[in-house]
Amino acid sequence: MKAKFIRYLINSKYSVSRALNFPVVTPAFIQINVTSRCNLKCRICTTYQFPSSAQSELSTGEIRNIILQAKQMRINKIVFSGGEPLLREDIFKLFTFAKNDAQMELILTTNATLIDKAVTRKILDAGVNTVQISLDGADAKTHDHIRGSGAFAKTQEAINALNTFRSEGLAIGLSYTVNSYNYHQMHALLELGQNLGVDHVLFIPFIEDNTYAHSNHSLSSFLLNREKIDDFRGVIRKIVDFKNRHAKPAIINAHNLYLYEKYFNGTLKNRHWQCFAGFHWIQINPNGDLTMCGFHYGNIRENRLKDIWYSAEAFRARGRIKQCQKLCLQPCMSKP
Ligand code: SF4
Ligand code: SF4
């Protein structure tokens, strides 16, 4: 009850922030995309197509400095994302710093194909709290169609390795990008997650450009067309039923899952869902740029985090976000 009330209060503050176009509440987390390099070439992704060079990426020292600045802003949660974060040689040093020197909660988003038992041990020793794994199918055929041959088997191996150490309090989550090729397996994914003992699942509707910086209409075949929408409605009903009957894996989408139908058939409106990009969390790209939905509003190599977050450029970017008509329904842009 108390937790619900606190969440209600914080959510109200995010709404006030949006109305004022000025953040009156601390961001829920900071996400550092430590690289846009990746060892996979997923069909649904634009990130890997624009890889950062190791020279242009924020250095170990620069990321440590960002972590300390975030802590000074009272941000207690950090997401290490990419690209594939495990490609960085200093990634475990960064985890350890965020955990030991900044006492932050650590979340790693990963395709998990580089995780074996030895890497799992390092992840745990560095203090990671949650490993959020991309899994886009409940079987090898579907997942590998999207993420490449052999990816499903490697991800299963990784989850098994992580499960070996579950007594140490690590949470495992799955992220499932819902699209025309895999929507029919959403329920099977939940059952698979149950069998694998994962803690939660996040359903993310496919968008044509997951960097928000490059248009890529060539991916539009992944959007659900009208013929599939009726079928999709039935799938969502099953998912909601699963959510009501099972505690695990928890479906952690904050928004109503029935909105997916409106998203895919193009009838989603601002009155159904509001975007909190620029109010809810801070994103930093591999070269130090701060962006909200592709709108650049500063670079951490030039200014301090707090100054950028409260700058006139940030104010302008938030104004543009509030006018967005492309409502993408991304769960990270929802209120917590
Ligand atoms: S979706 Fe993730 S794992 Fe796949 S290519 Fe893009 S960054 Fe890599
Ligand atoms: S809803 Fe609009 S402004 Fe918000 S993240 Fe999506 S595309 Fe960007």
Distance between the termini: 17 Å
Total strands: the figure is 10
Assign a percent range to the helix content. 25-40%
Major sheet strand order: 7-6-5-4-3-2-1-8
Average pLDDT score: 93
Secondary-structure element series: HEHEHEHEHHEHEHEHEEEHH
Spatial extent as radius of gyration: 19 Å
Helix- and strand-based class? alpha/beta
Please describe the biggest sheet, giving its number of strands, its sense, and whether it closes into a barrel. 8 strands, parallel
- Which blocks of ≥5 consecutive residues have pLDDT under 50? none
Strand content: 5-15%
Give the key terms.
single chain, 336 residues, alpha/beta, 8-stranded parallel sheet, two-stranded antiparallel sheet, 10 strands, 38% helix, globular, binds iron/sulfur cluster
Structural notes for this entry:
The chain has 336 residues and is of the alpha/beta class. Helix content is 38%, strand content 15%. It has 11 helices and 10 strands. The protein has helices at residues 2-20, 60-72, 91-100, 117-125, 140-147, 151-164, 186-196, 226-245, 259-265, 305-309, 312-322, and strands spanning 29-33, 77-81, 105-110, 130-134, 171-178, 200-205, 250-251, 281-284, 289-292, 295-299. The strands form 2 sheets. The chain has an 8-stranded parallel sheet with strand order 7-6-5-4-3-2-1-8. Strands 9-10 form a two-stranded antiparallel sheet. β1, α2 (60-72) and β2 form a beta-alpha-beta unit. α2 (60-72) runs parallel beside α3. The longest helix has 20 residues, at 226-245. The chain is globular. The two termini are 17 Å apart. The mean pLDDT is 93. One iron/sulfur cluster binds at residues 275, 277, 293, 321, 324, 326-328, 330, 333.
